Each structure stands twice: as structure tokens, then as C-alpha cells.
């Protein structure tokens, strides 16, 4: 079985002695980990969108309020940096999700959903 790496994130911490269990009752639940990383990826994407929107808002305010333009420019730059950071976090979680999926497929094998179609075609070819 592949070694599991514990990742500690800002919003969710696993206890060191906590181990997730799969449906058979042993090992690690890669599907649950994949779902977890997907959720964090989506949070990162939403954070990037929100911070980017706030940066644009502050850019607009800097143009409309020349008296406080310097303050708005600084807030715009901070929001832009936050957007880049959130985008990087989403990118990181996307790769963690792919890694969890790969580990699942290595452990349990790939799931081929097209088998029904293949069996149907084979039966039809035999009948004709």
C-alpha cells in the first residue's frame, strides 16, 4: 500500500492518530481524500475569484476617489496578492486530488464504466 502523507491545512486538521477507513474496514479511504481535496480546491478557486473581484473594486475606487487613491492602490495590490495565493492553493489541491485518485486506481484498479457498452456490442455481433 502506498504511504499516506498527512497534510495540514488552514481550515482542516487531521489528528496524527486518526486514520480514515475504507469500506472493507482496513486501510485508507482514497475516495474520501479525493473528495476532501476537491472541496479544498473549490474553496481556493472561490477565494481567488473573490480576492480578484475585490482587487478590481479597489482599482475602480482609486480612479473615482483621487484623494484616497494611494490607500486604494495598496488595498488593490494586497487583494491581487491574495488572489494569486488562493489560485496557487487551488492548483496545489488540484494536484493533491489527482494524486489521491491515482493512489485509489493503483490500489483498487481503474473503474471502466464502458464495460456494459462493450458487452452489448459483443452480444450484438455474436447474434448477427
Automatic annotation (TrEMBL):
Xref: InterPro entries: ABA_WDS
One Pfam family this sequence matches: ABA_WDS
Similarity comment: Belongs to the abscisic acid and water stress-induced protein family.
Protein name: Abscisic stress-ripening protein 2
Encoding gene per record: LOC107491489
